[in-house]
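tokens incoming
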């Protein structure tokens, strides 16, 4: 049993949390850890290649879209990591290839916000928390 699991057991026994509450806490802690690990890698990588400020602006600009829409969810950490990395890399490197006129940028921004307002967030079936079932022998 890991230190993490022992800590969760200690918290549950100290505060009498239910299994569902502990599962939610476990899920939340893992989500924060996964997001933090991705961000640290991305910050370091884009700083090393000289794109830190562009990445930071892109991240800040896209965060509201992610919060409102619910984001894109993949089933595994590494598939999410690779998708997120490719997503930001494509955006940053395509910005070097061509730039839209300011009126087109503003129009796309407004249109995106309107679409999110009317259709977001979209729930994803496998992100809902379920307790593991136990079988009796």
């Amino acid at each position: 049993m890991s230190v993490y699991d022992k800590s969760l057991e200690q918290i549950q026994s100290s505060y009498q949390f239910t299994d569902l509450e502990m599962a939610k806490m476990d899920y939340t802690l893992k989500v924060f850890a996964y997001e933090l690990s991705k961000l640290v890698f991305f910050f370091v990588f884009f700083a090393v290649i000289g794109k830190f400020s562009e990445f930071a602006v892109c991240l800040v600009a896209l965060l509201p879209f992610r919060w409102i829409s619910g984001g894109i969810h993949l089933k595994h950490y590494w598939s999410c990591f690779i998708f997120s990395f490719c997503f930001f890399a494509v955006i940053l490197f395509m910005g070097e290839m061509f730039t839209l006129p300011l009126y087109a940028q503003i129009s796309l921004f407004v249109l995106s916000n309107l679409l999110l307002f009317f259709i977001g967030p979209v729930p994803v079936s496998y992100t809902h928390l379920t307790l593991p079932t136990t079988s009796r022998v």
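note: The chain has a mean pLDDT of 86.
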